[in-house]
Write a structure and sequence with these properties.
mainly alpha; 0% strand
């Protein structure tokens, strides 16, 4: 899976439209679409803008490795 695939996955999981991302971050809809389709590499400033505006796991977007591999239920289940 590519960085663009993970960005798109994140956007869809959070039920966001590129127009909503533009309104909140200033990232153009066309630019974000280019990132999602791997036409452009997303830069560090843009990733920081997303992180400041949304709860986004930059490590996952870049590497595919999540910070936490367990779900909330797994971590806090009563046994």
């Amino acid at each position: 899976m590519t960085v663009g695939n993970r960005l798109k996955e994140w956007r869809i999981e959070n039920k966001l439209k590129t127009t909503e991302i533009k309104e909140k971050t200033g990232i153009s809809t066309g630019g974000f679409s280019d990132y999602e389709n791997d036409k452009k590499l997303i830069g560090s400033k843009t990733l920081i803008t997303l992180a400041e505006s949304y709860d986004i796991d930059i490590n996952y977007i870049l590497t595919g490795v999540r910070k936490y591999s367990h779900t909330f239920e797994e971590l806090f289940s009563l046994q």
